[in-house]
Amino acid sequence: MPELNQEQKKIISKIEEKIQHIIKEETNYSSNKNVYFTQNEGLVLSIGLTNLNLKELPDEVEKLNELIALDFSRNLLAEIPELLLKLPKLAVLNLSYNQIARIPDWIEKLVLLRDIKLNNNQLYTLPRTIGNCKLVRKIYLQNNQIHSLPRELLELKLLEELHLDFRASMHKTTKGILAQLESKGCKIRSDYNRR
Fold first, then answer.
1. Does the residue 1 lie in any domain?
2. Which domain holds residue 98?
3. So what's the pLDDT on residue 192?
4. Domains in the chain: how many in total?
5. Is the pLDDT of residue 182 over 60?
6. Is the pLDDT of residue 167 over 70?
7. Residue 70: what pLDDT?
8. What is the CATH number of the domain that holds 21?
9. Which of 59, 57, 49, 99 is nearest to 76 (CA)?
10. How many CB atoms lie within 10 A of CB 6?
């Protein structure tokens, strides 16, 4: 496997420098703190910065424009960072176990997204623009406060799985959307199936 090119090495070094204090604090071998990246042909294709109590993504991540997968789970992110718009090839986004209360409308600009993991956050709904993410196959939303879903979910023709918690207080239209998704072959992974 070719080595990272100089620019990619510098970017990874800067990211590691920014989170070095967290890594140095790590003395417990059983901890889940995790920093990793994978590369191919000298380019960083995925990066994971998990369980580090970070409140924001390091700015240097936006320079990894070949990035396909980003795992920023188990941190303290309060919102989805706009710098994701500078990652045109992003297909897998894992922001689970954070403190995100809202998905921005600009999510539709991440046109190559296939898997979106936003479980264990503080979400109440999805934006209507989610219907423009035409390649999405899996969405993980369980352990949020979701009571309603937009009809635009029905526009996701490739959606294979939707993971969420069914709530008795879920709006009637949302229950209808879930039923329609199921009828199109989407697997709804939730209490909804345990009638």
1. no
2. 6-193
3. 45
4. 1
5. yes
6. no
7. 96
8. 3.80.10.10
9. 99
10. 9
